[in-house]
Amino acid sequence: MTTATFDYGPDFYDAAEVFPRYQETRAVTDEGNATLEEPYVLAFLGDLRGRAVLDLGCGDGTFGESALRAGAARYHGIDGSERMLAAAAARLDPAMLERADLNAWTCREPGVWDAVTARMVLHYLDDLPALLREVRTALAPGGRLVLSVEHPVVTCAYDGDFHAGVPSEMRVRGYFDEGERACEWLGSSVRKVHRTVETYVRDLHEAGLALTALSEGRPVPENFQDPATCTARRAAPMYLTLRAEKPAG
């Protein structure tokens, strides 16, 4: 079968063959995001009651729905995909949603957001420092950004041995050579950007955000239905999740 080739853009998930495959991957039992990324994102966000939440790369609105259920006073989701936003609109008030390319996004409501999330989207962007500066502008004093990306051990080479979608080994190549990488994802060759852990931390600092928590997605048994999958997930890190805060003063 011929693999379609995409230069990742905000409309990637609008391709007819891509969106259904994405939905299938997320529905798998003990799926990676659900077990290794999401628990740390939620823990780093903390109590959302009465908070204003800005969600960059909001996808199908699942997180927005849970944030409002958790008591968020306001939610605004931004995504570049019409299909994703249509799915989100089925869960949320469409007025809470906005279509925009995060590569060119600028903050229109400075200093009002208590929490900004950017889950599994920043490894697609070319100019991370510019986006982080906009996030700092968007955050209220003392507000926090919680971001997650594919772990740099993964993005450096996208080369490993997998069994049932779980890596038993990841081969690290050219780790300190940052820049474009090609990744096979949802039947397509997708362009992503590899950055080191050091770069993510430095870019946060230079944007005026203080790193306050970091996770590499350590598997925790209570997040899994199958203990064997939890054990297998200990072989290699797949996600990097960071929390950074805007100074209160």
Write a structural description.
The strands form three sheets. A seven-stranded mixed sheet has the order 4-3-2-5-6-12-11, with helices on both faces. Helices cover 28% and strands 29% of the residues. Strand 7 and strand 8 (166-170) form a beta hairpin. With 249 residues, it is of the alpha/beta class.
Topology:
Layout: E1 4-5, H1 18-26, H2 32-45, E2 52-56, H3 62-69, E3 74-79, H4 82-89, E4 97-99, E5 113-119, H5 128-138, E6 139-150, H6 152-155, E7 160-163, E8 166-170, E9 179-185, E10 188-194, H7 197-206, E11 210-215, H8 227-232, E12 239-245
Distance between the termini: 57 Å
H/E order of the elements?
Answer: EHHEHEHEEHEHEEEEHEHE
Radius of gyration: 17 Å
Query: How are the strands ordered across the major sheet?
Result: 4-3-2-5-6-12-11
- Tell me, rounded to a whole number, the average pLDDT: 92
How many individual β-strands?
12
Number of helices: 8
**How big a fraction of the residues is strand?**
25-35%
